[in-house]
Amino acid sequence: MRTLLLTAIAALIIGSTTLHAAEPMKALIVDGQNNHGVWPTTTKMMKAYLEQSKLFTVDVATAAPKGTDPNFKPDFSKYSVVISNFGHGAAPWPEETQKAFETFVSNGGGFVVVHAADNSFPEWPAYNEMIGLGGWGGRTEKDGPYVYVNAEGKVVRDETPGNGGNHGAQWEFPVVIRDREHPIVKDMPVEWLHAKDELYDKLRGPAKNMQVLATAESQVTGRHEPMIFTISYGKGRVFHTPMGHAEYSQECVGFITTLQRGTEWAATGKVTLPIPEDFPKADKLSSRKFAESSVRGNE
């Protein structure tokens, strides 16, 4: 009887541990001020994609549409990872919120930077360090070098003076994996075709503790510009992708997979999600129509 009792207790403990381990992590999307009018839809899309992974439950904190919102004070400590869907021209967060966010990331919280979130907050030094590279908002050589990959596959830190942030016409462009062993991009095709999007070029910033995982060749600069990269900030992990301009860009299975795996990595330092069977190939686009997507156009 004693043996049976001990076996039953052990089974309960193991079952409880397994159940606890399977509980989804908490993620937070922050938004509210973005020069891209489609942002309410892309927030819905990213929330859905992350929840579809079964790894996350996702809350959304939305700032007032104009000016610094004194009531924008999310409790970052409740979350494993924060995803920014802010954009160019966003007003600074309250100083208390900035400090709380710096503490969150430096103490080990995950941060995900999507598309125009790297346009935001040019005057916030810690934010610029977190995102590694940014554009627009008056960013110049004072904010750090241009970063790109040259023909020999080497990362170049270019100190040439000039404004930060640019893109040409939207197009369907090839993404080239540069670090095939990093968990976010491991097992992706070496090259895959991304859906119509803005290809950001001439991004510049501190680029400290930054690792370039994938690039795409700009039709403007002729250089391979970072499209997937990571930054270490204190104990925190930051995943940054300049992709994701519009709903049709975020419908790309390459974007969806990169977002899901990048967010998992930012939250945990590991990636368990596999590459899906419908992942794009070098010569083949792959998109999933998002049912709630109702905004079309080129904001």
Describe the structure.
The protein is an alpha/beta fold. Helices cover 25% and strands 22% of the residues. The chain has 6 helices and 13 strands. It has helices at residues 2-22, 39-52, 95-106, 125-131, 247-250, 253-268; strands at residues 25-31, 56-62, 81-84, 110-114, 146-149, 155-158, 166-167, 174-177, 191-193, 200-201, 210-217, 224-233, 236-241. It has a 9-stranded mixed β-sheet, sandwiched between helices. The protein is globular and about 45 Å long. The termini are far apart. The relative contact order is 0.16. The model is unreliable at 14-20 and 293-299 (pLDDT under 50).
Q: What is the average of the pLDDT values? A: 93
What is the makeup of the main sheet? Answer: 9 strands, mixed
Task: Write down the Rg.
Answer: 20 Å
Strand arrangement within the widest β-sheet reads 2-1-3-4-13-12-11-8-9
Which labels suit this protein?
alpha/beta; disordered C terminus; nine-stranded mixed beta sheet; two-stranded antiparallel sheet; 13 strands; 6 helices; 22% strand; globular; 299 residues
Helix and strand arrangement:
Layout: H1 2-22, E1 25-31, H2 39-52, E2 56-62, E3 81-84, H3 95-106, E4 110-114, H4 125-131, E5 146-149, E6 155-158, E7 166-167, E8 174-177, E9 191-193, E10 200-201, E11 210-217, E12 224-233, E13 236-241, H5 247-250, H6 253-268
Parallel strand pairs: 1-2, 1-3, 3-4, 4-13
Antiparallel strand pairs: 5-6, 7-10, 8-9, 8-11, 11-12, 12-13
